[in-house]
Amino acid sequence: MDVLDWILVLIRWAHALGAVAWVGGGMFYILVLRPALHRSPANEQTNRTVGAEFRGLVNTAIAVLLITGIVLSASRLTADTVSIIYVVVLAVKIALALYMFYIVRFLRQRAYPEEVSAGAGWWPKFKSGLTGTTGLLVIGVVVIGLADVLSALFENGLAG
């Protein structure tokens, strides 16, 4: 391995850490922190503080993911073994990731979205599902799964 290969390993590592921090933090929030905050007499200031801290983590993860994703995409797309299927899966992964970045950066001004009332119609529930914390977490898990699919497709291209 030469120096460029080691640099690409470090970039892949940073990319993976950014994804794990964001998605893992989202899982922790949904599965542990949100239920604990709802059961405790936590005040609104505690929720705002948690939201601000998590937003800082997410903003850092977005920056790392964008920079490292561009480098990794350019590296893989210049390889001779890349197939059309690889490019399509990569495009879907990028589209989903950009959607997540857009929602977090531009649509969600509050730290956490408000819950949709039980009597709301189908559109507010659907919209909340696509832009809420749980919806973004599901999309993040899908994006991480697509990363594994891309690795398998790339390795298959190298092998055969």
> Per the principal axes of the C-alpha atoms, what is the gross shape?
elongated
- The whole-number mean of residue pLDDT values reads 85
CATH class: Mainly Alpha
Major sheet details: none
Q: How helix-rich are the residues, as a percent range?
A: over 70%
Straight-line N-to-C gap:
22 Å
Overview of this structure, please?
This protein has a single domain, classed as Four Helix Bundle (Hemerythrin (Met), subunit A) (Up-down Bundle). Helix content is 82%, strand content 0%. It has helices at residues 3-39, 44-77, 84-107, 122-131, 133-159. The chain is built from five helices and no strands. It has 160 residues and is mainly alpha-helical.
Topology:
Elements: H1 3-39, H2 44-77, H3 84-107, H4 122-131, H5 133-159
Helix pairs in contact: 1-2, 1-5, 2-3, 3-5, 4-5
Short description:
The chain has 160 residues and is an all-alpha fold. Helix content is 82%, strand content 0%.
Question: What features would you highlight for this structure?
Answer:
single chain, 160 residues, mainly alpha, Four Helix Bundle (Hemerythrin (Met), subunit A), 0% strand
